[in-house]
User: What shape does this take?
Amino acid sequence: MNTKTSSPWSFFIIALGISWFFWLWIILLNWNVFTFPAIIFGAIGLLGPTISEILLIFHSKNNKEWIDYRQRIFDIKRIGKKWHFVIWFTFPILNIVAIALSIFTGSDLPDFETVKNLLSNPWQIFPFAFFILIYGPLPEELGWRGYALDKLQERYNALVSSLILGVMWSLWHVPLFFMKGQWQHDALNFGTLDFWIFILNTIVLSILFTWIYNNTNHSTLSAILFHFMCNFTGQILPLTMFARLYSFILTIVLTISVVIIWGPKTLTRHQNKKKTKS
Assistant: This one.
């Protein structure tokens, strides 16, 4: 299938432009993002990557590209059993090890407030999981991996594509550090060590997303689920400042191992085979 219909840079300009435009009003007017009407502006901004890819696909007037795009979202068969294991257990393992290391070196045990609340009100688990899904993983990955990553990989190898996408992905998040009510603003704060860990970790994680995406026959669903587990695990197994540092180090080690073992060209075991898509 020919997907060379637009530049990935068009996607980034539109996605960041839409998101930053609506988020800017929340920042300038000093609103809390979870109050009205800020929540409307915040939601539209969150949809920036999704709106961008929809506009570009429709502009291409390529029906095959649209069909392929939908298949990669809904076709769960693309994800093999071992990749389900990677998707569902990578972040829980990373967080558990990071928490253990932080406790071993003198940090306090996290309070696990979210877990306590969910255990006392089990009926909230599904609404909570659904909120986590739509508040980031779904609207973001429909654009980042669902559209931009393939456009980048038409021009660069998998590692370079991941780094470019990771930089743009991290820049997209920067306004959140100035928005009251956002975790990035309330817990991390702009310019702190936590801020830089978040920015750099986003770039590194982009490589792992590409690794999974390329090994699941370009499944957008795999990226959505992996992103969901990242956010969900962060709520269930919260990290203190030192634990976040340990998690970042562990993520770097894992990512370097992936690049060495699978290779930077495609991050798959089929380095010399032509990329094919259904």
In short: Residues 272-278 have pLDDT under 50 and may be disordered.
